[in-house]
Design brief:
Largest interface: A-B, 60 and 60 residues
Shape of chain A: globular
Structural class of chain A: mainly alpha
Oligomer: homodimer
CATH superfamily of chain A: Winged helix-like DNA-binding domain superfamily/Winged helix DNA-binding domain
Strand order of the largest sheet of chain A: 1-3-2
Number of strands of chain A: 3
Distance between the termini of chain A: 53 Å
CATH architecture of chain A: Orthogonal Bundle
Number of helices of chain A: 6
DNA sequence: ATCCTTGGTTACGTTGAGGTATCTGATATC
DNA sequence: GATATCAGATACCTCAACGTAACCAAGGAT
């Protein structure tokens, strides 16, 4: 359909894929699954603040996209493992790159915010550049 | 405060930074500004579907984080240019990496979705594995 | 005079992602 | 029996993000 996918083209499906990758929890799930497969409960604990409902939803949609493989072991208490698919594993680099940026630039960003908030309490509203 | 920033730690600020990077429009704005600075209207046209309100909001918060520099030229019709800051430019690689993933895997993802939707229309609801 | 343009602002309405709370089904253990 | 475990399901609610529509100020062009 589209000759060359282009995220900057609003009609291109790649934009929805990008959006999906940048869902609130998807990057964290990918990061959590990079080292090894995890069970539902482990994944939940690893991420810390996600609710079971949202975790299920996000995992389902990632499974649908073929990023994650869900394996059910029908034992006495059921056991369900989630792991990155082959395609999902190719996300490792992009997501890790993002993670590294975030982690190594938190301080800078927080400092910028503080400076901005401070400076704009004074110059209130109008963009200076007088004359 | 935090010794080692870790996105997988719910309390770590790096998580909010990551979340901010994955705002709906932020990645697209970064991508649009990589080649060169753009005026408000150009940026809007480049992205295609963003409303002025949301564009303003997103640009303001990116300016606050020190990712984008806003330059006002008080001419007759006002002129405002937006460009990536030095810090913002360091986002080029992470975001481009994500973009490339999205663009080169759209087809695969769409195919996976189709297969999933098809296979699960039949097996409806219950996880098979009968007996 | 009036219109056009640029880069917004403001007030308002909507929606869907995400959260909360409670429940289930199958075993297994106490 | 009673209770715990695991992996969710379900109903319901909230809120912040996002969208829509209208408006504005200043100067230049017509």
């Amino acid at each position: 359909m589209n000759q060359v996918p282009d995220v900057l083209n609003p009609a291109c499906d790649s934009r929805t894929v990008l959006r999906h990758l940048t869902d609130r929890w998807a990057p964290l799930i990918v990061l959590a699954l990079v080292p090894n497969a995890l069970r539902f409960g482990e994944l939940r604990a690893r991420i810390g603040t996600i609710t079971p409902k949202v975790l299920t939803e996000t995992l389902r949609s990632m499974e649908r996209d073929g990023l994650v493989v869900r394996t059910v072991t029908p034992s006495s208490p059921p056991r369900v493992d989630y792991e990155l698919s082959e395609l999902g594993r190719t996300l490792t680099t992009p997501v890790e790159t993002l993670r590294e940026w975030a982690e190594s630039n938190v301080e800078a960003v927080l400092a910028n915010r503080a400076r901005y908030d401070c400076g704009h309490a004074a110059t209130r509203g109008r963009t200076l550049l007088r004359t």
